[in-house]
Structure formats: C-alpha cells, structure tokens
Amino acid sequence: MTAHTPPTPPFRDPQLPFAKRIDDLLSRLTPEEKVSFLHQFVPAVERLGIAAFRTGQEALHGVAWMGPATVFPQAVGLGATWNTDLVRRVGDAVSKEVRAMRAGDERVGLNVWSPTVNLLRHPLWGRNEEGYSEDPKLTSAIATAYTHGLRGDHPTYWRTAPVLKHWLAHNNETGRDVTSSSVRPRVLHEYDLRAFRETVEAGAVAGVMPAYNLVNGRPNHVSPYLREHLRSWTDEELLVCSDAGAPSNLVDSEHYFDTHEEATAAALVAGVDSFTDHGTDSSQIVARVEGALEQGLLTQADVDAAVRRQLSVRFRLGEFDPHHDPHAGTGEFDSPAHRALAREAAEQAIVLLRNDGVLPLAADTRIAVVGLLADECKLDWYSGTLLHRSTPLEGLYERFGAERVEFAEGVDRVLLKTSAGTFLKVPAAPAAADEARGAEGALDPALLAGRTDLPPLTTDATGTELALVDWGAGVLTLRAPDGRYLSVAEDGFLRASADQPGGWVVQETFRLEPYADADKDTHGNGHLLLHLGTGRHVCVAADGVRVAGPQEETPEVVEIVVVESGEDAVARVAAGADVVVVVAGNDPHIHGRETEDRTTLRLPDHQERLLAAARAANPRTVLALVSAYPYAIEPGAPGAVLWTAHGGQAAGTALSRVLAGDVSPAGRLPQTWYADDADLPDLLDYDVIGARQTYLYFEGTPLFPFGHGLSYASFSYADLAVRAEDGTVHVSCTVTNTGDLTADEVPQLYTRAVDPSVVRPRRELLDHRRVTLAPGARAELSFEVPLSAFGFWDVAQGRWRPESGLYEFLVGASSTDVRLRTTVTLEGEPSLPRPVRRRGLEAVDFDEQSGVEIVDRSKVSGDAVTPVAGGTGELVYRACDFGTEAGATGVTVTAAGAGTVELSLDGGPVLSTLKVAAPTPGPYDYVTVAAALSAEGVRDLHIKLRGPLRLAHVGFSG
Known about the structure:
Elements: H1 18-28, H2 31-36, E1 41-42, E2 53-54, E3 68-69, H3 75-80, H4 84-104, E4 111-112, H5 136-151, E5 161-167, E6 180-181, H6 185-201, E7 207-210, E8 214-215, E9 218-219, H7 225-228, E10 239-240, H8 246-252, H9 260-270, H10 283-294, H11 300-316, H12 336-348, E11 351-355, E12 367-370, E13 385-386, H13 392-400, E14 405-408, E15 412-417, E16 423-425, E17 458-460, E18 466-470, E19 476-479, E20 485-488, E21 494-498, E22 510-514, E23 526-531, E24 536-541, E25 544-547, E26 557-564, H14 566-575, E27 579-585, H15 605-617, E28 621-626, E29 640-644, H16 651-660, H17 694-697, E30 715-725, E31 728-737, E32 743-745, E33 748-753, E34 764-768, E35 771-773, E36 778-786, E37 791-794, E38 799-802, E39 805-812, E40 818-826, H18 836-839, E41 841-842, E42 848-850, E43 852-856, E44 863-867, E45 872-881, E46 888-897, E47 899-905, E48 910-916, E49 927-935, E50 938-946, E51 949-957
Parallel strand pairs: 3-13, 4-5, 5-7, 6-8, 7-10, 12-14, 12-27, 27-28, 28-29
Antiparallel strand pairs: 1-2, 8-9, 11-29, 15-18, 15-26, 16-17, 18-19, 20-21, 22-23, 23-24, 23-26, 24-25, 30-31, 31-36, 32-35, 33-34, 33-39, 37-38, 39-40, 41-51, 42-45, 43-44, 45-50, 46-49, 46-51, 47-48, 47-50
C-alpha cells in the first residue's frame, strides 16, 4: 500500500489570504493552547508544527541586550537630525541586524519594541533620551520613518514588526506606576494622541505598548482609548503588548482591582493581547486567564481576538511561509555600510548652539580636550554592546594628530584614608579579567549579576589613587587606575569590577556623608561612604572592604585625601592650547534614566567648575555637551557651544569632523532648551495648554528655541507663496546657500492662527525639509498641508473643527528665526456657542481650570473632574448658550462623593449651589442633584467645586 501525504492545512497555504489562514489555525488550537498564547513567551504547539514565539526585542537605536551590534545615536539624537530619509535608513539597518542576529541566536525576536513616541513635554523626564521631540508632528515624522525602515518594503512580509511605546501621556518616572496624568480633551487629541495616530496611519506599525501610568485616573492597560482611538486608525490587526510587570501592577501597586483575575480580564477586554509579566514564567498569567474564564469575566471570543492579533503579526513576519519570506537569510550585520551610516547619523545629530567664530578649527590648531566625557563613549539602558568605539579624544587624535592634542579628564584624584590611618587598596586583577557588562546578551539584562571573580578591595599603608567624579546631588563614582569602577556584587564586597556604571539598579554609585560622633566631633574631613545601590555604608572587614549588613559591621569613617583636583589638571593643559574643548554631559545610567527623573536643568557642580577653570585659563573655549537631555547653561557661556545626544559607536569621529569643519553642523533642537528651572511646570502637570508648555505655548524666552541650530554656511530665503485650493494649502519658497562651503539647511514651516476663538499654539510646525546645498546652489521647496491640519479639538462640539480666519505662515531656520512670513485667510467652520440646554455639559469639556484634575468616571470608560486633594477647584466653560426668553430655569449635576457645586455667570455672584451632602457609597456611585437657576443668552459659565466630589455632567432645563 502507498501512504497518502496528508493534505496541507489551509493555514499553511501561502495562496490564501492571511485572514482565512488565521481563521483555520484558530480553529485547530485548543482553548488551553490559546490561553498559553497570551503570555510574552508563547510555547510551541508541536502537534501543529508551530514554533515558540516571544514578543519584545528592544531596538531603539540598534539591537539592544543581545550582545554586540551596531550602535546608532540615541533616539533624541535621531530626532535632532530632522532627517526622515536618514532615520528610515537607520531603521532599515537595525531590522537587517535583527534578522542577521536571529539567524545565529533564536533568542533575538522579530517583534521589536520601538520606537518610543512619547512626546518630550518636560526636559526633566528621566527617559528623555528615548523620545524624538516635544512636537507631535516632528515625532510622528521621525517615528514613521523609523518604523518603515524596521518593517521593510515588501508589500506582504515584514522584516520586523515594530511596537510603539508607551501609550499614553507618559513623561514621569517618579511614581510612574501609580501617578495619573490629567489630560484634558484638547491636550489628548491635539498633543498626546497625535504622534501615535499619524505614525499608525502611515501603515508600518504592528502594535503599541501601554505605559505604566494612569491617564485621568484609569491605568493605561485598561484604557478605552485602545479601542476607541487606536484600533480605529487602521484596518491592520494591532498587537498590544503590556509593559513588563504592568498587569500585576493593576492589583499590587495601583490597587485598581481586587483580584488578578479581574485585572487580567479587564486588560484583555480593553485590548491588551500579550502579557509581559513574571519573566519567562507564563504559569501565573495562564492561571489568571483561566480563572477569569471560569468566573465569567472573559469569554472564549475575548481570548480568540487577542490570539488572532498575535497570529496576524506572526504571519506578516513570514513565520508560516519560510520559503516565501523575502527577508529570510537577508540579514546584514556590522557591514561597512552600517558603520558609515552610524557615522553619518552621529554627524547629522550634532547641533551648533552658539558660535562666535571659534569654529571650525584650523588644521594646525593646538587643542586641549578636557572634561568627564572627553574620553567616553557612553551607552544607555537600550543600547547594544559596542562593536566599535570612538570617543571625542580619540576622534581629535585621529583628525588633528596626537601631537597637537592634550588631554585632562578633570576627575578629582583621591585616596580614601581609613580611621586606622591606612588607605583603600585595589588589588591587582587577573590578566584575563577584561569583560564588558552584557557582552553575552540577555533577554532581561536587569537580571545580570555583578562580578565576583575579582578580588575585593583591601587596605594598606599606601592605597590606590582613585578617580572621583561627582555627577550631581552628591552622587559619586570611583574608578581604579585600570579604568574599572568600584562596584558591589551580591556578596556585598567592593571590587573594581565594572567597565561602566550600569544595570537596572546601578551598583557603582556612592555618596559621601559628613560624619559626626556622639560628641558632634566631625573628625576633620571624616565621611561615611554610602553605597547607593544597596543603601548601606562601606565598612572595612577582616576579609576585605564591603558594605555593612543591616545589623553588622560599623561603617568606616574615611577621609578624602585629594592628590590632584580636576580643576588644576584642566587649567594646566588649557593654558598651553590654542583652543580648549570641554566635553561635558551626563552618564545615561546616573541622574535621568528609566526609573529616575532629573531634579534640575543645571550642569553638575563638578562640571561647572571644570568649565570655569578652562575658561579662566583660556578664553577660546568650546563647550561640547554630550547628553540625553537639555541643560540650562550660563548666558555667558563659551563662544561656541554644541550639543549632541550620546552618539553611538561613531560619536567621537563625528564630533571631531564637525569641529574641524569637515562637516558643517545642521542638527536642530527637537525640544525647547529652557533658561532656568523656574521656567518649567510641575513634572506631573500634563496640561501643555493651561501650563503653557513646550514651544507651542511657552510665553517666556528660552535659552535656545525649538528647531534652533547654526551652520558654518549662510542661507537666504525668498519667494514665499501660499495658496489654498481643494482642501490643501500649497506653500513654496526658495533657499539659497550664500556661504562658501557645502552644507545642509533645515527650512521649517510653521503656522499660527491670528485671532483664534480659543488658546492656540503661538506657532506650530507644519512640515520641514533637510536639504544639502553647494555654495551658490538654490533649492525650490514645496509643502502641501491638508486644511485639516489647521483644526483643533472643539470641546463645545466634541470633534475636530477647522476654524475660519487669518493664519500666518512662517518659514525659517527655527521656530523663532523666521525669514519669510505671510498671512492667508482659510475657510473653515465658524465658532458656535455650546448648546447647553440641549446637550448639557460633560464636566471634562472645560475651557479653563484651576485646582482640578481629571479622574475616571467608571473603571471602564468616561471622565469626571474633581478638586485636587479634595480641596477647591474652578472650571470655566466659554460661550454657553442658555437660550432666549426664559432661558434656563433649572440645573442638575451628576456627581459622586461629597461636596458642593457653585455656578456663576461671567465671573459674577453665585447663582446656584448644589450639594451632595452624604458621601455616595463609592467613587463610581453617582447621584443627580437639582436646583433652580436663572440664565439666558450666551454666557461664560463658572463652576466652583468644593470637597472630595467627582463631577461628571451638568444639565440644564427650562
């Protein structure tokens, strides 16, 4: 007998549409198998020949966490290029390296968790390095370019599947899993949703990741916006992947639900499809889903919908069509093209902030390069391991010759003297001790342990000279002469073992605490050395130097003996140079990182002192800031100032080429640089309109404005023309290079409503170009802007409304360096008063507020407003039409909690007071209270709230 070959199941048939194939595969999976698909680590289904799968491969600016890979500039640096073509090519290179690395390591995933499209609303946010810009238009343009590169160009199969992070209104690390972002409807639609929406609509996004925080009192992982907005923007199935541990936070830290079964069910119904929780252990999520099904909190259809979305991504990645996948075997890794692209991206990310003629440097310039980052190539939490490394010092050596470059790092070189008169000693390390953190790759680098194979510190009569750096707020690092940082491993001993500060909990930072004994004797320069990673003091034990246990050794009192101050070293080399280049900035693992917001815009004191020492010794000083975020520097700063984000593997070469004039800088600031901390709103104030945040609304004078960046060339702008027809505004102009070298220019198109009916942006980016022009060359630029771009979210009508009127069009080199302008009348819709007698008022649809925050009307949907901390708050609703003749004669409020609601018109006396006397049973138990009110005509309604009540709706009768 001849054995019959079993027929190919439909889900394996590449001739069928993906939807039919997914239907077939879903019908073959058992209910238990489907539930197992809901965890990040999906097991194989061997009976169907389906491989294991995992969501989540970090790839923000190169493949991260999986060992060596090409490292491009940080995301904020890619944003600073203002170059969508470049960023698309970077995304293309990253996706090819993902494919190449996966070919040799199945741990490398194709579902990449990037880019981050959170807007850089507040410069103190710890994760500023991960975003592209404070502007939604620029952010979406850069994110769209990156996702198109990650996706690839094939119409059917995707090279990788990008997931956008972090949905939604997420700009604080302080209490990030318990704080709520109060986001009014205008800010929601005009600001926070826009970057996500325009990127998703561009068609190269596979999903999103909700953020840890709450929005308007409701956790993002149960947000109705996933269904109401996100899934309405595209016909593609979008995979929503939870952030790590966030499903458990719904119960454990947020206490939003009583049980994990309730929480898991609510997240799944809201739209979360893949649960990232408990690492590789899926058993708890599986148990919670099964429990929710047993309790009737979920249906099989809910599970099927989530599994369908995951399978849609896997089919698009070619998993089920290995012979048809055009990306299989097409990976490219560390190629000459990728190395050149990394350098190009680093060059284009550099922003020249100020220049009095010091730059560019002549070829025979004698340079002193100084500063804590002068010989560093820093990585961040989402970097890969460096294959190549270029520091500013190395770049300057290469470009100008080592004989013309002097170096002083500017660290304080110290000995640590114990109370016994001995000094801390770093023993000699074994010859084979060179090992970079994370070089082997890790699915979760937070679990990487510190090294214990090196000898711990001891004490002796001479000690070891250590390099001490104060990174601000008293946070120190101590480095041994061989370049390794003092660190503490799990056994508690201090070792010179870390190549750099790093890790989820940094184990390489310390703080010196002034010491005083019981008699308040400070013992001169006596200090306790606190290890910040463990929160324990350093002590000297018989078996070595270690951190004290909770009830163990007495902390050691150490005296800081300064062998050489950083200022002295800097002054010495600066005095003999033609030009001093001070390289200052941040370490991405210290002060301003995931889990930690900054507290100030100021440079750390240590670096301020080095800059002052350099300038005092040599007035021809260039400040090169290498940082993940803006700084506020003194107005009298050096004549030349540059900024670049941490630029990846080619950072030093790129900086040296710009300093030398081989490349004219053309990066532009992707966010406002404020002059002082006093210019900043509270970190948790998400109302960009009310708090006048970002260049869109800021009314002060910035240190450097959004879009700012200088060039070594000069450019003239001319021939501005604007016309509107067929729903599109056509704008054209010319830009000419009037300088004597080839350079890039970034013309930027802005608009503003001249006489708006509501507060509108002072100016708003509509489009931009980055163009390369030879001397004397001219570019003719044209922009096409849909009329919808001139609309705003009208809370009176609950929709987008383009407003008729005069609009100014501005073209220039930054948001303030305007070279051309004209005014055009655009047709839209007229302003209409609120029909409050017919529709009433949703409390959240206010025009202005003070002392009020937005909260959840229910756990499922809707918004309410409440006074902050149960105090007093006020709401203003403009142009409310109460009707003519008798007008409104009664008012009702729908509220929960307890307190009073006072109504007045146009800021006059209180006309009606409504009181919820007895507290309602719970925050979601609403009652309706009525009172008399006399109002007619179109008036501004003021509502004052007193006490801990939630106001959801106001109705009128008459």
